[in-house]
Specification:
The structure is a homodimer of 106-residue chains. The first copy, chain A, has 106 residues and is α+β, with helices and mostly antiparallel strands. Chain A has five helices and three strands. In chain A, a hairpin with a 2-residue loop joins strand 2 (70-75) and strand 3 (78-83).
Chain lengths: 106, 106
Amino acid sequence: MPDAEGHPAPAEMTLRTVLAALADPLRYEVVRALARDADGAARTCASFGFPVSKSTLSHHFRVLRESGLIRQVDRGNSRAATLRRDEIDARFPGLVQLVRDNPAVP
Amino acid sequence: MPDAEGHPAPAEMTLRTVLAALADPLRYEVVRALARDADGAARTCASFGFPVSKSTLSHHFRVLRESGLIRQVDRGNSRAATLRRDEIDARFPGLVQLVRDNPAVP
């Protein structure tokens, strides 16, 4: 079962759900940015600077969290997101590298 | 530019569009079935036996074709689909293998 914040365990992740999470342009950019950051880098939702409402942003981060791609941790007033790189690499080898290597628009 | 049937050249494919094509359960099943078939195997849309209308099926195969995942060729009364495996492998290494290895529902 996913934990209280909706993070699935690696065995609960499905490739199709992960791909569906990545299919949206904003979410793809989030994962690609995290994949290009140093391993374990944590970023707040706001730090990405997307021109969307807070509720839209929350929705997208929830989809990412529930797919298993990111982990969100509370930091008082904000939440920071990290890529679950090692777990994704173990579960779906090569996927993070593909996203890292491929800009949304070539 | 894509050809007259909407098949993009490999350089025109984007990972995000390919992932969006794979995000739908029916389309994921089509690609996974073709990935598990012998290389170059061609199948008609009807051969998959999905319980959806012909127009819905046509829509899904068009999305797959326009993403670059499959090639469709006319066969008189029907169209046969093949996975563009070598081109996808060259453009997005490891992706076909991931789909092949991961059932939609684990």
